[in-house]
């Protein structure tokens, strides 16, 4: 069975490819390389011993999608491609709706036309917005507070409607919390362009000396140490969940599942854990809260255990160890070929 992975050259997609290939599945990466480096393909080959098939294409290009799905005899799609910066989604909102919502619609249409029925979609915990109750369960109301979160919610909605149409797809929507870490080889990892938006790659770049200090936005939140709490999960655990989702996506038409550990970790706790894993000092400066940031959120991981038989195996220490291993071996990311 060949699985097409849109966004398969990116941080999470590359880890999903490796896990799928280790599980003996054929993959074809479909990516426009807008936020990834072609060297990642070579790294996947070095880890797995096999070069994955690659098509350079955009998820809004129905014709290239159709020819890829047909030519590779795909039986399922993992739809990871998307734009993911909360800040950019405010300043470039049309671009975000085009890529994340229109791109998902075009992909669904290409699947309908080629008879590929099963799709696993990379959604996000941002669909929930400000939590009423913690841990966040999948039946919590959806009220995203930024355009990025709304694009993910709208992509979910259109997939659900198509799942109930006359030409239905089977849809598994995986709501990621905070994926971090890297493959244990240190050959693939998170390599954002410019200044990282996410905490872990920011801390890594401070540790390696590419950035002077970590700005912590807000130390007066109602949390034990005053800094924001998130649910960090190891990207290799997250990748494994996609295999479980592929195996059960056709059992029920629509599945919405959190991929989180159920454990919250504060910014300062993550900084401490990273300092221990790397043996490096992480200088921290405190800055005011950013508008729209949420004090604390973490997942209920019960449904993932029930329906996917999945739970996170790796803890914060392993996440920091592997993130540091990647950064140490690739101080300049994939530019260090
Ligand atoms: N990283 C996170 O913290 C996080 C959290 C929740 C959800 N997600 C979602 O998971 C997915 C993957 O995130 P990531 O961290 O791996 O991001 P990433 O930017 O590393 O990977 C996304 C990949 O998609 C490709 N891409 C972007 N637009 C495309 C288009 N129009 N056509 C084809 N390819 C395109 C990029 O080149 C890149 O390779 C995204 O959909 C993101 O919204 C990520």
UniProtKB/TrEMBL annotation:
Pfam families: GDP_Man_Dehyd. InterPro entries: NAD(P)-bd_dom, NAD(P)-bd_dom_sf, UDP_G4E. Its cofactor is NAD(+). Homodimer. Keywords: Carbohydrate metabolism, Isomerase, NAD. It comes from Tardiphaga robiniae. It catalyses: UDP-alpha-D-glucose = UDP-alpha-D-galactose. The lineage of its organism: Bacteria, Pseudomonadati, Pseudomonadota, Alphaproteobacteria, Hyphomicrobiales. This is UDP-glucose 4-epimerase. GO terms for molecular function: UDP-glucose 4-epimerase activity. Pathway: Carbohydrate metabolism; galactose metabolism. Its EC number is 5.1.3.2. It is an enzyme of class 5 (isomerase). One of its GO terms (cellular component) is cytosol. Residues 4-322 form the NAD(P)-binding domain. GO terms for biological process: galactose metabolic process. Belongs to the NAD(P)-dependent epimerase/dehydratase family.
């Amino acid at each position: 069975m060949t699985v097409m992975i849109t966004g398969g050259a990116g941080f999470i997609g590359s880890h999903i490819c490796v896990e799928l290939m280790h599980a003996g599945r054929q993959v074809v990466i479909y990516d426009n390389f807008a936020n990834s480096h072609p060297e990642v393909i070579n790294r996947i080959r070095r880890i797995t011993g096999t070069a994955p098939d690659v098509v350079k294409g955009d998820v809004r290009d129905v014709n290239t999608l159709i020819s890829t799905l047909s030519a590779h005899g795909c039986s399922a799609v993992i739809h990871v491609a998307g734009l993911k910066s909360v800040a950019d989604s405010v300043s470039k909102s049309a671009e975000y709706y085009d890529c994340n919502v229109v791109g998902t619609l075009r992909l669904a249409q290409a699947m309908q036309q080629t008879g590929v029925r099963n799709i696993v979609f990379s959604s996000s915990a941002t669909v929930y917005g400000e939590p009423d109750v913690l841990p966040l369960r999948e039946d919590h109301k959806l009220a995203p507070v930024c355009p990025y979160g709304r694009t993910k919610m709208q992509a979910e909605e259109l997939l659900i409607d198509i799942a109930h149409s006359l030409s239905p797809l089977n849809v598994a929507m995986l709501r990621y919390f905070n994926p971090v870490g890297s493959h244990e080889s240190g050959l693939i990892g998170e390599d954002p362009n410019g200044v990282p938006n996410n905490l872990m790659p920011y801390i890594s770049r401070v540790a390696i000396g590419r950035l002077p200090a970590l700005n912590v936005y807000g130390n007066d939140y109602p949390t034990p140490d005053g800094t924001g709490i998130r649910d960090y999960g190891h990207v290799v655990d997250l990748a494994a969940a996609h295999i479980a989702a592929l195996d059960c996506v056709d059992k029920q038409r629509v599945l919405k599942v959190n991929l989180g550990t159920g454990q919250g970790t504060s910014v300062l706790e993550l900084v401490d854990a990273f300092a221990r894993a790397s043996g490096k000092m992480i200088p921290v400066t405190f800055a005011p809260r950013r508008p729209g940031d949420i004090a604390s959120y973490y997942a209920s991981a019960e449904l993932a255990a029930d329906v996917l038989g999945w739970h996170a195996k790796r803890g914060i220490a392993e996440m920091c160890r592997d993130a540091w291993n990647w950064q140490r071996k690739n101080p300049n990311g994939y530019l260090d070929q």
